[in-house]
Protein 1
Amino acid sequence: FSAIEITKDYLDRARKFDGSIKAFISLNEDAALRDAEAIDARMLKGEEVGLLAGIPIAIKDNICTRGMKTTCASKMLEDFVPPYDATVVKKLKEAGAIIIGKTNMDEFAMGSSTENSAFTATKNPWDTTKVPGGSSGGSAAAVAAGFAPLAFGSDTGGSIRQPASFCGLVGLKPTYGLVSRYGLIAFGSSLDQIGPFTRTVEDCALSLQAIQGQDSMDTTSYKGKIEGQYVSELQEDIKGLRIGIPKEFFQAGLNPEIAKAMKDSMEVLEKMGAILEEFSLPIMDSALSAYYIISSAEASSNLARYDGVRYGYRSNSFEGINELIVNSRTEAFGKEVKRRIMMGTYVLSSGYYDAYYKKAMLLRSKIKDSFANAFESYDIILSPTSPILPFNIGEKLEDPLQMYLADIYTVSINIAGVPAISIPCGFSRSKLPIGLQFIGNHFSEKQLLKAAYSLE
Ligand code: GLN
């Protein structure tokens, strides 16, 4: 197949069926076809093309694409067209990938259901009465519905892994610093990472190879030596792999059907020669509290740039600069974004800093230590990705605390900065996908992918 045939095929499918899924905020039809044509021409000439030559991809709408609207699913950036590409986008283009569209998300990546988008809610392709998860729900739905073989999202507290789990896909949150954040519109800068959604572990390995690497445009980018090859390492067996099972991740609140799917997968791993052992990792409650304090604090600072002055939405009615700022924000930010900004401003304010933000930072170092300790005894940690199955659209919208609980197994990973992958591991009786999470030590992506591959 030529790149143009493949691209046309996916675009046709997206045009035909996205009306009922709403994975995309914008399609990039003309440019995608032009790019595909260019790839075909280069291949015809025998030129060398990249790792993802001619592969259509979808990109979450908080990752900057030059000349293409990047809205963060917010009225604030509804007409924002970035003058530059995010480093990840630049790398993907160099690898020959064809960007076919930008995907829906929770506004500024705040949420777990993709219902917080200012434009529309995305539906789960497995059952359109259910949410696809969030905040990268559009990217997950795009791959699950067959609109693109690969999609990219961002994960601050679970926003790749949880939607991957809800949509029956592989989703990877890389080690903090492995993938450049330059051009990713910031939510919680010390937690954010970009990663892929794919149908297979092999595609995930390939995608990571394409986007990872040191970048001078991101000061938190890792400067040490990294693994360059993941795909060729996937074949190895997992005999002797030490897998820790944190018992706190399997207690009250875990859906019994998900618990059963975990047990079945553990048996398979044991049969293949992995050594499984239960241990205690009592970080759940503190991780959730620390996460919502740290991520909201960072968000309140990051989102202060939207003032209606330099770019983004500007209110039509104001007198003086203060009213300009207040009215622009009041009119253009959604409810959840305002809630996070207020929470963040509160925990950072001088009177409450010690009681909240400082405590959260202490918890953060404890959580890091707990993971470091665990990785002295285990190569990998196994848990469910989410305690619940994909829920009904609208079900948790009025109850933010219930929504926050959907991330109970994922947020601690971002706090510690370690990598984790969610892989499909069966279905509920109601035919909804279930996801299993493997957590690894810093820069152990190779091992994570190997373990994930063994369950495929
Ligand atoms: N659902 C979490 C939140 O609302 C995580 C979001 C994310 O990873 N971007 O903050």
Protein 2
Amino acid sequence: MFITVPRLSRVLQLTLAVIKPDAVAHPLILETLHEKILENNFIIVRRKDLIWKKENSEMFYAEHSGRFFYQRLVEFMSSGPMRAYVLARDDAIHHWREMMGPTKVFKARHTAPDTIRGQFGLTDTRNTTHGSDSVESAHTEINFFFPDFCIGRWMEE
Ligand code: ADP
């Protein structure tokens, strides 16, 4: 008798998670967030500490160019070290975004105090974390942060 075992990559979804400079500046917060990732059954597929130039920041957030907070966001995201992860688990995109909480910190603190932004967010811009919001953006964003990581090959493994 044969038992069919699905390939891991058919069960697992990938997402990009970023710990923004406000949190990386605090080693205890960074450590707490790393623990949260593990406690929530994510597999850490890749991890990288990096500092963006302003151009990287402008490119990544180009969809927001023209919004009132764009310059503030671009400056902030290139103001210090960040940590990026490629994470895998079932429903990874949705799960990480649930853990992040609402974009705006007032809302996060008042409606979702147990989320990462509810606990650690400082302002609407300095809101601790980023997460991809769709399969397409996860692929684009993983490629942006980890150009050497071949998603297609990982999916086939
Ligand atoms: P999310 O990061 O929750 O997916 P968006 O894609 O809408 O949210 O925005 C990208 C980032 O831009 C946010 O995480 C935050 O840092 C910043 N931002 C969004 N909206 C505002 C705002 N109204 N005021 C200041 N910064 C903002």
